[in-house]
C-alpha cells in the first residue's frame, strides 16, 4: 500500500551544518535524507533557519474574567506566530486550578479554542487534592508561589514541604516561584527591584532547597539573578525579559517593565548571560495585562508582561549576530523543556514530533501590531528579532506569511492521567 502524501522540508541545514531533506507523514518525521516522493508537498528551506518548534513551559493564557488581557484564541495564535507550538498554562487563573473540576474545565476551554498544543499545571493550596489533580492530567504542580504575585497567593513553608512530599511520591514535578518581599512603597522600577531584591530571591531558592527533604524534582521559574541560578538545585528557567531588559532602559515609572521577579539592573542582566550554559530552559512567563492597566500609577499597576510571541524571535536575532548558537536555542527552547515535562521531542530524526519553525536569515524589529496578543503592547518594542515565516504543527502548516491555518493541536496530560470511564 502506498503511503499518503507527506510534507518534505528540502535542503534543511542542521545545527551541525550538514544539509538534508526532512520527510514528514502523519505528524512525525519519517526520513532524514534525500528523496521526495510523488505527491509530497515541498518547502524549500535553502535560505532559512529550520528549528524544532519551541515548547514554552510558562504561560498564563488568562481567559474568563481576564479575557480582555488574553484568552486561548489570541494567546495561542501569538505563540504560533512566534514559533511556539506547545505551551504549558499556569494555574493561577480566576478561580485558580485547585480542583479536578476546575482543571478539566480549563482543559476543555483550551481544546475548544487553542491553535497550538498545550498542557496545564495544577495549583497548590493547603486544600488542593494533589493526587486527584495528578489523575485529572496535571502536567506539573505550580508555579508554587513562595511570595505573592499578581493573581498568585503564597504558601507557607509547612504547606510547601507537605506538598513536595506528596508530589515526590507521585513522581511529579514541582515548579517554584522563588521570591521574598520587603514591605515598602512600590513607587517605581528601582523600588520594585529593592522590595523584591535579588538577595531575597536567592534566599528563597535556598529555603526551597531546605524544604525539599524528600528529594522532589524541582524546577525554578524565571530566575532573575546570577546568584539565584548558582544556588538552585534543580532545573533553571530564565525569561527573555530578564535577559533582554534592564530598568536603566526606560523611565523609573514605566509600568510596562513591571514584573515579578523584577527587571534588574543592566549589570545584573549581563550577569545572566554569563550563566548561559547553566540555564536549562528559556520560557516566556507570558503574563499579559491590558494597556489601560499598565497605564495606572506604578503602585496600582499589575506585574507581568506578554512574551510568548517574542520568546524565540529575540533569541534568533542573537543567533544571526553569532552571539549564541542555534544548537543552544534549540536545546533551551525545545529539547530541554520537552524532556522536562515528558512529551515527545520535536526534531530532525525519524520518529520525532513534526513541529518546526522556519525563520528567514534576516532580522526585523518587534512591533506590537504583529504579535497577535489581545493586550496589544510589548515591552520589547523596537528590539531586533527574527519572526518565523512558516510554522508546522503535527506535520501540518499552522502559520505561514501572517496567515493561520487549521491543524490538530493536542492536549498533553501529565503522566499520572487516568481518563474517566
From TrEMBL:
* Single annotated GO MF: metal ion binding
What sections of the protein cross the membrane? none
A Gene Ontology CC term for this entry? cytoplasm
Which of UniProt's keywords are assigned here?
Hydrolase, Metal-binding
Q: Which GO terms describe its biological process?
A: purine nucleobase catabolic process
Q: Which cofactor does it need?
A: Zn(2+)
Fetch the Pfam families from UniProt. Amidohydro_1
| Domain Amidohydrolase-related, first and last residues per copy | 49-359
**Protein name in UniProt:** Dihydroorotase, multifunctional complex type
Q: Which organism is it from?
A: Methanoregula boonei (strain DSM 21154 / JCM 14090 / 6A8)
Amino acid at each position: 500500500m502506498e503511503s499518503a502524501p507527506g510534507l518534505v522540508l528540502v535542503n534543511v541545514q542542521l545545527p551541525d551544518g550538514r544539509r538534508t531533506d526532512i520527510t514528514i507523514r502523519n505528524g512525525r518525521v519519517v526520513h532524514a535524507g534525500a528523496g521526495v516522493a510523488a505527491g509530497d508537498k515541498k518547502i524549500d528551506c535553502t535560505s532559512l533557519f529550520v528549528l524544532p518548534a519551541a515548547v514554552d513551559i510558562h504561560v498564563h493564557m488568562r481567559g474568563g474574567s481576564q479575557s480582555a488581557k488574553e484568552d486561548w484564541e489570541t494567546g495561542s495564535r501569538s505563540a504560533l506566530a512566534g514559533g511556539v507550538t506547545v505551551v504549558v498554562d499556569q494555574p493561577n487563573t480566576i478561580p485558580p486550578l485547585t480542583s479536578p473540576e476546575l482543571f478539566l474545565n480549563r482543559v476543555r476551554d483550551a481544546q475548544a479554542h487553542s491553535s497550538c498544543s498545550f498542557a496545564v499545571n495544577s495549583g497548590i493550596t493547603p486544600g488542593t487534592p494533589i493526587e486527584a489533580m495528578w489523575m485529572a492530567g496535571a502536567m506539573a504542580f505550580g508555579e508554587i508561589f513562595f511570595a505573592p504575585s499578581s493573581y498568585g497567593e503564597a504558601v507557607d513553608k509547612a504547606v510547601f514541604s507537605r506538598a513536595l512530599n506528596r508530589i515526590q511520591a507521585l513522581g511529579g514535578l514541582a515548579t517554584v516561584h522563588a521570591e521574598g518581599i520587603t514591605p515598602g512603597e512600590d513607587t517605581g522600577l528601582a523600588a520594585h527591584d529593592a522590595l523584591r531584591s535579588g538577595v531575597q530571591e536567592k534566599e528563597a531558592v535556598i529555603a526551597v532547597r531546605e524544604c525539599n527533604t524528600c528529594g522532589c524534582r524541582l524546577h525554578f521559574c524565571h530566575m532573575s539573578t546570577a546568584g539565584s541560578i548558582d544556588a538552585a538545585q534543580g532545573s533553571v528557567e530564565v525569561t527573555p525579559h530578564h535577559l533582554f531588559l534592564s530598568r536603566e532602559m526606560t523611565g523609573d515609572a514605566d509600568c510596562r517593565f513591571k514584573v515579578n521577579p523584577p527587571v534588574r539592573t543592566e549589570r545584573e542582566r549581563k550577569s545572566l548571560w554569563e550563566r548561559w550554559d547553566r540555564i536549562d530552559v528559556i520560557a516566556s512567563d507570558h503574563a499579559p495585562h491590558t494597556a489601560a492597566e499598565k497605564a495606572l500609577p506604578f503602585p496600582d499597576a499589575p506585574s507581568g508582561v506578554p512574551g510568548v510571541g517574542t520568546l524565540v524571535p529575540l533569541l534568533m536575532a542573537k543567533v544571526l549576530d553569532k552571539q549564541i548558537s542555534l544548537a543552544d536555542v534549540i536545546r533551551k527552547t525545545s529539547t530541554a523543556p520537552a524532556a522536562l515535562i515528558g512529551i515527545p521531542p520535536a526534531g530532525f530524526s525519524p520518529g520525532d514530533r513534526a513541529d518546526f519553525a522556519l525563520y528567514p536569515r534576516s532580522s526585523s524589529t518587534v512591533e506590537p501590531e504583529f504579535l497577535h496578543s489581545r493586550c496589544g503592547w510589548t515591552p520589547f518594542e523596537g528590539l531586533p528579532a527574527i519572526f518565523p515565516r512558516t510554522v508546522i504543527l503535527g506535520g501540518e502548516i499552522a502559520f505561514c506569511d501572517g496567515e493561520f491555518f487549521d491543524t490538530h493541536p493536542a492536549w498533553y496530560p501529565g503522566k499520572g492521567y487516568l481518563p474517566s470511564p
